[in-house]
TrEMBL record:
This is Aminoglycoside phosphotransferase domain-containing protein. Transmembrane segments: none annotated. Residues 66-258 form the Aminoglycoside phosphotransferase domain. Pfam families: APH (PF01636). Gene3D superfamilies: Transferase(Phosphotransferase) domain 1. InterPro entries: Aminoglycoside_PTrfase, Kinase-like_dom_sf. It comes from Amycolatopsis regifaucium.
Amino acid sequence: MTMSSTPHSGHCPLPQVPAAVTEAICDRWPGRGPRWLAAAPSEIFALCQRYDGRIRQTFSARYGLVVSVETSHGHIVLKSTPDPDAPLQAAAARQLAALRVGPPVHEVIESEFATSIVMEQVLPGVRAIRNASIDELGELLNVLKTAPVTLEFPPISAWLRNRLVNGAATDLPPGVLAASAEERAQALPVLDDLVRDESRTFIHGDISSGNVLRGPFGLRLIDPRAATGDPEYDVAVLALKSGHQLAELARRAAANSARVEAWAMVAVAARV
């Protein structure tokens, strides 16, 4: 997420869903999207009033209404989304907070067409994936490996397989074109080999440039995919997004470099 609008002042205003978010949500969830759009601004407004805060910024998000709110106790983030997987993502965010690599989650509210999340805001909150040292990133990955084993979250391999089979025509990173059928076909047997002994440990699953932020006590992770899988998958994606050498980051994270290379190939073909 990146900050987009100018700060508000005075009492908490009724927030507006950005036009790009409206289009993306209605396209992805045509059944849920319109009903969420009708309710989300009022729900965020009510949360803002409950925390006696005022909206300072609206974030640029792909599939939700996300705002920064200033309260007498500090800054919080309010997020509402119609994503059916949002309750699992909220549970994964709590896992990150428990590991002290994610901001604390104060509240999760589920309704028929939406999930709203209240969490502390990471400040200064600048994107850190490109300016973090390889030692910092390696330490972050090693902390993730200490999470308790859970089967609550689905395997990342299932999500990747769906993208490879269906061409990843939706939910692509900005400015990225879907992989060719040939590239995806070459990646599928690599994924099959990886799945034979894939771990089911907790992973972030989406360590992209906007999800690694600089906080007062180091790096913090936000917006987890809510997945299980090989720790090497997170290593591969983080190496691809940060520009660090795969083998070197694998060494710092005490990961199997051959599996990191294989997951990187699958991740590229799946356009994560």
